Amino acid sequence: MFKGCFVAIVTPFKEGEVDEESLRKLIHFCLNKGIDGIVPCGTTGESPTLSSEEHKRVIQITAEEVKGKVPVIAGTGSNNTNEAVELTNFAKEVGVEAALVITPYYNKPTPRGMEVHYARLNEIGIPIIIYNVPSRTGINIPPETVGKLSRLKNIVGIKEASGNIDQMSSIISLSKDDFSVLSGNDSHTLPLLSLGGVGVISVVANIVPGDMTQMVKAYLEGNIEKAKELHYKLYPLCRAMFIETNPLPVKTALAKMGMIEKEWRLPLVGMEEENEKKLEKVLFDYGLI
């Protein structure tokens, strides 16, 4: 079972190219703060703008730097099943522990189509974590479909970012006991843990990996009061990470902390001045700048 706090790591850019040096430093920053795992090439990693070669390179760098210290869950999803298979096979070849596979966006397959898509990936022989984020993909995977998929050998979990508490409850109740239900929204992590979830794939962990990891750890170890305290400490920061489209706020925050260049790829552009000032205040209040 994959449980704990996994950082959905950003992909730093410099002059239009992947900034490999900053990526390596960020990976070690998270490792040194006790993160439970690293997730490259997700939404926060701007995977839609990475070429196939860049996508594979970022996965490879992450595997090289982590060296088995914690699990690496590589983003390998696509709305093209063949492309998802290719990326997932690559992730398996470089030795990552699991693949994070988004529901097929734009195509809007039926539940049966999603079953066949994930069943094909199941055959590759690497643990697969479903990624459900309807606000991005335009499609929601039904809890009943997740329950069926959880019975396949290599479909081991879901990153659930629907924001729907009832759906989270349904997924947990319909899935196998050892199926990892991970929050896809930082601010929903504590509520999901209370329902039986086992962790989070986190955006805010890019900037405060220690606190986010400790919050999840505290809850899983039964220290509910400490978990609640950390939840409310983190809550303004979690909300600020989504004041504009992810990963604009988190990359802006990392740049203000001197960790990466303030750069992303079109069609993403810089934050609105008013929102950036709001972000600065939250970062200042937290003691990060």
Protein described:
The protein has 289 residues and is of the alpha/beta class. It has a single domain, classed as TIM Barrel (Alpha-Beta Barrel). The protein is built from twelve helices and ten strands. Helix 7 links the parallel strand 8 (155-160) and strand 9. Helix 8 runs parallel beside helix 9 (209-220). The termini are far apart. The model has no long low-confidence stretch (mean pLDDT 97).
List the helices and strands and how they pair.
Layout: E1 4-8, E2 13-14, E3 17-18, H1 20-32, E4 37-39, H2 52-66, E5 73-75, H3 81-93, E6 98-102, H4 111-122, E7 128-132, H5 134-137, H6 143-149, E8 155-160, H7 165-174, E9 180-183, H8 189-195, E10 199-202, H9 209-220, H10 224-240, H11 248-256, H12 273-286
Parallel strand pairs: 1-4, 1-10, 5-6, 6-7, 7-8, 8-9, 9-10
Antiparallel strand pairs: 2-3
Helix pairs in contact: 1-2, 6-7, 8-9, 9-10, 10-12, 11-12
Oligomer state equals single chain
Please tell me how large the radius of gyration is. Answer: 18 Å
- The CATH class assignment is Alpha Beta
Number of domains: 1
Assign the structural class, choosing from mainly alpha, mainly beta, alpha/beta, alpha+beta, or little secondary structure.
Answer: alpha/beta
Report the strand count: 10
Tell me the major beta sheet: 8 strands, parallel
Task: Write the CATH fold name.
Answer: TIM Barrel
User: Beta-sheet strand percentage?
Assistant: 5-15%
Helix fraction by DSSP (H/I, runs of at least 4): 40-55%
The CATH architecture name reads: Alpha-Beta Barrel
Mean pLDDT: 97
Q: How many alpha or pi helices?
A: 12
Biggest β-sheet: strands ordered side by side in the sheet: 4-1-10-9-8-7-6-5
Low-pLDDT parts are: none
Distance between the termini: 36 Å
Q: Shape from CA axes? A: globular
CATH superfamily: Aldolase class I
